Amino acid sequence: MNVEQLSATLAAVASPQRMLILAELQGGRVHVSELARRVGMSRALLYMHLAKLEASGFVTTSLELSPEGTALKHVALAPFSVTVTIDTIADAVATTATVNNQ
Amino acid sequence: MNVEQLSATLAAVASPQRMLILAELQGGRVHVSELARRVGMSRALLYMHLAKLEASGFVTTSLELSPEGTALKHVALAPFSVTVTIDTIADAVATTATVNNQ
DNA sequence: GACAGGTGTAACTATATTATGACACCCGTA
DNA sequence: TACGGGTGTCATAATATAGTTACACCTGTC
Fold it and tell me: Which residues does A contribute to its contact with B (CB < 8 Å)?
């Protein structure tokens, strides 16, 4: 994992709003509009946050048809565990430096 | 640890520039001006990054007199290990929610 | 005194992130 | 057809973060 990826992953979870979203998803998967109501933010904003969370693998989404026939985009928590130590960081920096020097 | 603290801690380390700084400090403590040269940034900018790293406990600083009599601000890596799981986040959210509802 | 090398910060600009509001479109139902 | 409830995205505004430049000040040395 290079610096950019590690940075993006940490930044994705280093947001009070996104932590709220993840905590809410602990109760089970929820569709986007319902999730927006629960965390108290607009759908447009939630889409932005979900894009960051999904890009770094913290959540997964799936578009499914409800019994009533309407499409629902379900968001579910993905299992994850991120540990940061000086070695994690040094490795990322070393990888990035190598790539840049090629 | 509440959401604000956890967010600040993760944000502090979720920066390519600050990762570079931490990686550089792995070789031992360095004074500010020298560190600025090594990571290739201005002192003013480095001070800003160091303030964030120090606020979350990733580095420590100490002002000391060199043998030549000039003051040197030494920056050293502090031992750390940050792990983020859904439980870490849920706890932080729960703590924050409790505080806000008081 | 002029210089080299250090600390510390204020003011400002540039850029990235976060947030809002409006729009187009789809499906079932009264 | 007019709702109500979804999805998805586009400008745009507001705010936070990152970065630059310049300044004041200190110490030892030529």
Answer: 3-4, 6-7, 9-11, 13-16, 19-20, 22-23, 26, 77, 79-86, 89-90, 92-94, 96
The total number of structural domains that make up chain B: 1
- In CATH, what number is assigned to the domain containing residue A46? 1.10.10.10
For A22-75, write each residue's pLDDT tens digit. 999 999 999 999 999 999 999 999 999 999 999 999 999 999 998 888 999 999
| Domain of B54, in residue numbers | 3-101
H, E, C per residue of chain A: CCHHHHHHHHHHHCCHHHHHHHHHHCCCCEEHHHHHHHHCCCHHHHHHHHHHHHHCCCEEEEEEECCCCCEEEEEEECCCCEEECHHHHHHHHHHHHHHHHC
Question: Is position A101 within any domain?
Answer: no
- Per-10-residue mean pLDDT of chain B, 102 residues long, equals 96 98 98 98 98 98 92 98 98 87 58
